[in-house]
Design goal:
The structure holds 2 protein chains of 2 kinds. Chain A is mainly β. Chain A contains no helices and 11 strands. Chain A starts with a strand and ends with a strand. Chain B is mainly β. Classes of the chains: A mainly beta, B mainly beta. At the A-B interface, β5, β9 and β10 of A face β5, β9 and β10 of B.
């Protein structure tokens, strides 16, 4: 069964609004979670590393003020796309690794964001 | 930073034939190399992985080989079946401040023709 749960699975929003995506580890505590973005027919690009109790680490070129990440507990990380624009439409996927068991990386089901 | 290159971008094989996908990585410190299969609109699923202390690993019809010196690793699928059709991604794990993060290759669209 799924060990990483992501919600919502899809969302449509209007340009200028904000959207929050949740990522939960179901049977382990994840001090670190990773957020990826995947455009159609492209690879998964790491956006940021979410760290429980501290600030997220963003990859080069990813705007931290636009993609707000909060990792308030050991089982929940949220990604908020602020002031969304059509170019933000993409497939957002979170992932986490059980630190006790180690690899592999478990992925959530992903969130298909469409900004109109 | 780490760079992972993957070839070919598309691969068509006849059912029953073998398929090989190759990847190279740039960071010699990378020590974990997973392969993922992704079907349209779904999350990537791990199919096999290999660590840098092993040269080859096999799981039924799937095998992965690693050449640390050349910094390349390959996925081998034998006796391909139509349900093997999907996008395959290789990845390399590099150490970050908060744990190892994966860098993915560009992906290979595998089509198995029956």
């Amino acid at each position: 069964g799924a060990v990483v749960s992501q919600h919502p699975s899809w969302v449509i929003c209007k340009s200028g609004t904000s959207v929050k995506i949740e990522c939960r580890s179901l049977d382990f505590q994840a001090t670190t979670m990773f957020w990826y973005r995947q455009f159609p027919k492209q690879s998964l690009m790491l956006m940021a590393t979410s760290n429980e109790g501290s600030k997220a680490t963003y990859e080069q070129g990813v705007e931290k003020d636009k993609f707000l990440i909060n990792h308030a507990s050991l089982t929940l990380s949220t990604l908020t796309v602020t002031s969304a624009h059509p170019e933000d439409s993409s497939f957002y996927i979170c992932s986490a690794r059980d630190p006790v068991r180690g690899s592999p990386l478990h992925f959530g089901n992903g969130t298909r964001l469409t900004v109109t | 930073g780490e760079n992972v290159e993957q070839h070919p971008s598309t691969l068509s094989v006849q059912e029953g034939d073998s398929a090989v996908i190759k990847c190279t990585y740039s960071d010699s410190a990378s020590n974990y190399f997973p392969w993922y299969k992704q079907e349209l609109g779904k999350r990537p699923q791990l199919i096999i992985d290999i660590r840098s202390n092993v040269g080859e690993k096999k799981d039924q019809r799937i095998a992965v080989t690693l050449n640390k010196t050349a910094k390349h690793f390959s996925l081998h699928i034998t006796e391909t079946q139509p349900e093997d059709s999907a996008v395959y991604f290789c990845a390399a794990s590099i150490s970050g401040e908060y744990g190892n993060k994966l860098v993915f290759g560009a992906g290979t669209i595998l089509r198995v023709k029956s």
